[in-house]
């Protein structure tokens, strides 16, 4: 059994990680730390866990574990790392953005870096939009075919975390839609870095318009760029690229977000329009975009089948 | 023109009041006060007002007005009244619950107290659930036919105001439903007082289960009690009771909340089941349940046609 | 491996059953029949299944199976049974309402009839509202303490199936709420029958107001009745009743629907108000209220651990 | 009083038109025709109208009117025109797309064609997405500055009408998002025609990705293109262009759909990113995108103040 510790278990990604690990056949949860909720039962904060676990949030951590998940806010991971000396036997999976651009860590997108993840000690888990965009564009970059890309995407509210804000107030967000950080989303740096891992000379813009959706879970990304391949060739390239990646499927049908909600899957769809290749991708932002991908990385780091504990019943509706 | 001042104009009911008064043919808005937003344009806080009004929130009030609307949180009205000496020529319409049980004020439900509202100087505007429940039950009490009543009701999120809370966080409330303050809702005192105005010997429980709905506007109330009348007689009684009240209609069709959203209307529907008379009512919690009713009261207090400025296009969808 | 056939696999409960059985460790899906979709891949109709199963809907059935699930509309099961001679070695789990009142079948609520389910050949799977209401009231009836009950409940739209109707049109239902079949819901007959299994002299009304919610999954039921027990005693009775039932938990916290969505769980909460004992319950209408309970019944009928294949990651948000 | 007839009054745009005209001070509704609902009261089909109008849908039309609104499905208007000889004294406002490209009719976008609308006998009312996109781009074309544009937009479900379809089923659409007709939306022809009215040499693509939103009312459009102007100049150009158009405001704040829902307004916002000028616009698809614009056109055609009957209280929440 893999002994697991979680730092920052009271938030959305921490809770989602506990939900996954409780049903993981090779994992034992040793502790779940939370500053704000120490002493409370997990099912007090995550009430859906009632009946599944009686564990209490701890104030402290211990290193009698095999792997430590960092589920804190951005900035808190680097602070944590600077304040703790993590023993060599403890692997770290960090869900924050703090080290995603750090060449000393492994960027934890299995569809890009599976081998290096398998031997990594510290994995920086990708961002949610970053995951959806990369899975839409990696096969192009892999073939050196990436050009200027026009991207729009829409995300559920859980991507914004549990701290209340104006744009997560129900009376504001319900039946509403808006954009934010157009052309300037913080995930684009990690996207660009990954794409240049395959196509180092890439120097074109990735124009990205992120929309706030009035739903809680899921991301839909639409990207298009000029492409000289016929559609059939593009589809062949994408299928080939993803053939050994169990969570990504090239779909021949129109996509919608609920096809993958509550799963670790990513569906990708390709169409051609007036010379533009359009690629869409859908993921669950909390699973393939966060905690599910973290477990996928853990599986790879510990030599387990990649899908262990991640064959999830989708929400569908 | 009626000169109007508004205290607490940055909240939901204050904003809604401004939306109504801007289109009211007999009103001039003199000032809109807000402690938190003083100096800001109204359309900065209520961005839908862009293009309609260039007024700025004021820090202070003045009494060169005919009527003052108090749109502050509960408790703040009584504090305001204790701190200010309001001139005799200024009528007050108070949307808080602070004076709804005060016999020195007039309880501003026009379908109960139209005549006393017409001559009132200080009107305590009813609560939203209180309005919907009273409009469902007043004709029974008027006929001395009120018995123990079983009530369930569901409200939109704007009833909870703009301050964020766990239960107005989008990620929590979206696609969710729950109850709160079962058997113990703060509006039941004013409901009981009104019903006893007609049926003073009434001493039975009003059992009320309030639900939080995952929508922003609207209230649906379902009430039932034993009733010896045949259905046709009940319908006749209700139609007679509401015949001179332009905002209440007895509907022969099943009700849903969106039939009245964005209007000042109340629809009431009656059916009979195994000896129980079931009464349903629907209102918009911010209009007939708050700011719309406040304007209706203003119209009555100033001798205007009751519906002036309140013939609103419904949202319908 | 239990060999499974499904009749009517293109609908909501059929699709949900496939989702569950695909991850069930002791099941092999032999065929999924659908008249309307015969020849189509399952993932064409249920697109979320892409990547999980390549099976095609069949026009016909065969009886080289151990258990047959009937997922057809109400009325179609009895027609099916009258037209087919089901071999003795094939057990049937029928999700329709056709035989729920039939004394020759076993009513498949494990929290009421676990032993008879274990030896049953034909299980009539309970209705969704019926499940939520019974789980709220069974411990009272078990103790002979059931009295007249006042019940309100709210259900997601998937309970109405995939056939379009006015009340499942998005433009109508979104941000809307309404009631239907007040005092006259078709599930109350099976509820009454079950309660009288424990308390045969029960002859009081079960007054039930069903609401249509503007969400897709989940049911919340609120019931209250006079009760002479103190609250602590009621809680003790309920905990004792459910102690050997792994899917039902007595919660000390306020309930909301999303605590159980996408799980087979039922949470029950008890409070006391002015002599009324109030009981709330929440389930996922498609899981504990339909396909999940069907799998639970299958587990019992085949001697498996009751929770096999049903430890589902909840949706939570 | 302008005497009005409506053909096709049972649908969404027909109902919305009735809602508007009931409160219009210079209009008398003579008849509302509907094939499917002839003989029914308007408030049976549009239940929110209860208490406002007792009119019945007629099977037939008469020409004792001043203006006829055609609110039928696409294709039905041209069929209607070919089958009826409309007297010269009857002006027509056609909400379908049948004649929007017809040079013998006037394309009814007041912000483009105000003068020709004022003298028109037959106005082809623009499409909803077409309106939002044109209001975002017209000032650029007016200055000959239009280049290849990248556009994404998201629309409420009422744009798809009241006929049920898979993508308007609540269980599918709720909490879901998807695209449709990417690069191929039927409104782009009218958009292109209008833009070329100002900039005849324009021959670049207008790349448009339309999203289906999980809300009922509203459209948000995001467009960007290279632009050599500094942002301040772009804002100046837009403000100048719209200075005499009362329903369009250039907003300095981020836009969201609910800022204009239930109004006839359009808000436009401009920002600059890496050489791209980004323009966003928001409208209510049923008002500025359909029936509200139809009334605006009527006002112009009959010499009324353009905003008559269109100063609507916004929904805001």
Automatic annotation (TrEMBL), chains A, B, C, D:
Record Pfam families: Semialdhyde_dh, Semialdhyde_dhC_1
UniProt catalytic activity: N-acetyl-L-glutamate 5-semialdehyde + phosphate + NADP(+) = N-acetyl-L-glutamyl 5-phosphate + NADPH + H(+)
Subcellular location per the Swiss-Prot or TrEMBL entry: Cytoplasm
UniProt xrefs under PROSITE patterns: ARGC (PS01224)
Enzyme class: oxidoreductase
Entry EC number(s): 1.2.1.38
Job of this protein: Catalyzes the NADPH-dependent reduction of N-acetyl-5-glutamyl phosphate to yield N-acetyl-L-glutamate 5-semialdehyde.
Protein name: N-acetyl-gamma-glutamyl-phosphate reductase
Source organism: Roseivirga misakiensis
């Amino acid at each position: 059994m893999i002994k697991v510790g979680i730092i920052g278990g009271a938030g959305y990604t921490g809770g989602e990680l506990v939900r996954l690990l409780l049903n993981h056949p090779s994992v034992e949860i040793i502790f779940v730390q939370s500053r704000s909720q120490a002493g409370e039962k997990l099912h007090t904060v995550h009430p859906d866990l009632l009946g599944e676990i009686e564990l209490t949030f701890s104030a402290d951590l211990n290193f009698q574990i095999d792997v430590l998940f960092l589920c804190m806010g951005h900035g808190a991971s680097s602070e944590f790392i600077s304040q703790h000396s993590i023993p060599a036997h403890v692997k770290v999976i960090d869900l924050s953005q703090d080290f995603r651009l750090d060449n000393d860590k492994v960027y934890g997108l299995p569809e890009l870096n599976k081998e290096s993840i398998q031997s990594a000690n510290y994995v920086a888990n990708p961002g949610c939009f970053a995951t959806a965009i990369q899975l839409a564009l990696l096969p192009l970059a892999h073939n050196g075919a990436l050009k200027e890309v026009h991207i729009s995407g829409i995300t559920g509210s859980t991507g914004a975390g549990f701290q209340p804000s104006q744009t997560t107030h129900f009376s504001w967000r319900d039946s509403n839609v808006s954009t934010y950080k157009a052309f300037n989303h913080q995930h684009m740096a990690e996207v660009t870095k990954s794409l240049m891992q395959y196509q180092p000379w890439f120097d074109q813009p990735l124009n990205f318009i992120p929309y706030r959706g009035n739903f809680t879970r899921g991301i839909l990304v639409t990207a298009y760029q000029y492409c000289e391949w016929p559609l059939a060739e593009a589809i062949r390239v994408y299928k080939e690229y993803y053939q050994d990646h169990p969570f990504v499927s090239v779909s021949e049908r129109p996509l919608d977000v609920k096809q993958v909600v509550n799963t670790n899957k990513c569906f990708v769809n390709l169409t051609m329009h007036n010379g533009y290749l359009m690629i869409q991708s859908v993921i669950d932002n909390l699973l393939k975009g966060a905690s599910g991908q973290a477990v996928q990385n853990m599986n790879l780091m510990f030599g387990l089948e990649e899908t262990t504990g991640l064959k999830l019943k989708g929400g569908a509706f």
